[in-house]
Amino acid sequence: MKRIYLSSCLLFVTVMALLTGCKKQEKLGFISQAIGYTTKTLTVPTGRGIIMSAALAADESTKPIEASILSIHDENGKVFTDLMNYKVDTYYWTGTPTGLETSLDQINKIRIPVKRPAIDINPTNGQIIIYAEATDAKIFPQGKYIFDIKVKNSAGELVVKDALTISTTPAGPYSYSFSGVDGISGIDVKIEKAEASTGPTKLIVKTLRKDGTPIDPKTLLGYDYGTAANPNLKDWHNMGLQKINKYTEFPDRLEIETAGVPIPVIGGLPTGNGIPVWSERIDMYNNSSAIGKYFNYWFDFAIYEPGTWNITIKLNY
Question: CA nearest 177: which of 281, 262, 274?
Fold first, then answer.
């Protein structure tokens, strides 16, 4: 009888120990050595809207997790200290622009100004964020950037070495992307900032024939996108929601002074309407008076730095 009692006690103690161990393990949680990004490389053009990587794959690690950027370095291990300390003025969005806003006040109701690291991370899921305002090419030039990520949860912490590699095209004070032509074979677009330019932000726009002679801007018309209530004319009268202070046409050029930068204040229409979210689209045509036949060209651009900018569009035909 005594043996049965002792055996029962031992069984009870063993079961309680196991239960206690399980509760302790449950409390401590689990952190997987395999936590990481499923796609480990990313190639991105910077300065064209916010860029976001995929989230970390937690591999059944106990949530919540807390992720942070431990290091950004090159292939030789050199740490980009200035880049890690680089901060930009950007926005936290509480809503999504529709593309039909008619004033900046409408936009400001759904965004809050914030200063954030140019290369940021969502601590709850490890998603890497590169803000559109990260355009300083001296700090963030074209290159390959390798991320070491630290992950913490109730079970402890680990460092995921070489977790993600991001290759960038040059960040800079402007962005440009060719979109299309009709009636001609192509366009060559050059965007250059005048050296040591100060004062108001000014765009000097020239459209040239193939022999280099200028086309009178009065003969170029913009295509109508959108609705009758909001035509959203895609010519140089439209800088998104950026205020135009002065618009002057000369026989050989167009001069536009704006309230500042960026141009556009926000991007074009939302994704799905055929216009990138980072840019303003220019869509111009002439029926025949300029080169003897109809032509149409369209492209997307953005300006981030104040000063005088020369924009030259040369037709190929």
Answer: 281
> Are the CB atoms for 246 and 256 separated by under 8 Å?
yes
Distance CA 102, CA 299 (A): 22
What is the spatial distance between Cα 14 and Cα 277, in angstroms, rounded to a whole number? Answer: 63
CA separation for the pair 87, 100 (Å, rounded): 31
Query: Which tokens go with 293?
Result: 């036949």
Distance (Å, whole) CA 283 – CA 220? 10
Opening angle at CA 132, ends 41 and 143, nearest 5: 40
- Residue 245 and residue 200 in contact, taking contact as beta carbons nearer than 8 Å: yes
Who's near 244: CB < 8 A, 6+ residues apart? 237, 256, 257, 258, 259
Report the SS3 class of residue 88. strand
User: What mean pLDDT, rounded, does the chain reach?
Assistant: 86
Q: What is the pTM of this model?
A: 0.73
| Residue 227: per-residue pLDDT | 59
The 10s digit of each residue's pLDDT in 61-79 is 999 999 999 999 999 999 9
Cβ 281 vs Cβ 178: under 8 Å: no
- For the chain, which ranges sit under pLDDT 70? 1-27, 99-100, 226-232, 267-277
Q: What share of the chain is helix, strand, coil (3-state, %, to 5)?
A: 15, 40, 45
Position 142 scores a pLDDT of 93
Q: Is 7 helix (H, G, I), strand (E, B) or coil?
A: helix
Q: Are the C-beta atoms of 136 and 130 separated by less than 8 Å?
A: no
pLDDT tens-digit map of 232-246:
678 898 887 888 999
Cα-flanking dihedrals φ and ψ of residue 218, to 5°? -65, -20
Tokens 């300029």, residue? 290
d(CA 21, CA 16): 8
